[in-house]
Amino acid sequence: MNRAFDTAFAKQVLESHITRLRALNYSQLFDKLQSGEIETGEILSQDGMLYQWECLFYWDSNSDEDVRVIISVFLDPRRTAVNDSFIVSPNGSFVGE
Q1: Alpha carbons 70 and 56: distance in angstroms, whole number
Q2: What is d(CA 17, CA 45) in angstroms, rounded to the nearest whole number?
Q3: What is the mean predicted confidence (pLDDT) over 61-68?
Q4: What SS3 class is residue 88?
Q5: I want to staple 73 with a disulfide (CB 3.0 to 4.6 A). Which of 10, 33, 86, 96 is the partner?
């Protein structure tokens, strides 16, 4: 069965992870980056489609202290996805906002 990517549903999943991760402090995000942690999971939409999500933690390319968090939600990572990211500095402020 080939159903369309539900952008609204994917954005809801994305927003829930953005909200959760933005609530963490710099030290917690730094620990995830240092450990090489990648958060992944799956969630079933109401129409029976299995979406995957992934949260990655990197050093920001403009600094070796700021942590960049990238979140993606997709059905197939090679196709349509919704993505968002944010950067946190060691003082806990969000960079670029």
Answers
A1: 5
A2: 16
A3: 82
A4: strand
A5: 10
pTM value is 0.88
What are the angstrom distances between the C-alpha of 18 and each of 1, 14, 48, 55? 30, 6, 24, 9
Distance CA 5, CA 55 (A): 20
- Over the stretch 78-90, which tens digit does the pLDDT of each residue have? 788 999 999 999 9
CATH of domain 7-88: 3.30.1300.30
Contacts of residue 72, defined as CB under 8 A and 6 or more positions apart, other chains included, come to 14, 53, 54, 56, 81, 82, 83
Pull the structure tokens for residue 43: 């969630």
Euclidean distance between CA atoms 21 and 72, whole angstroms: 13
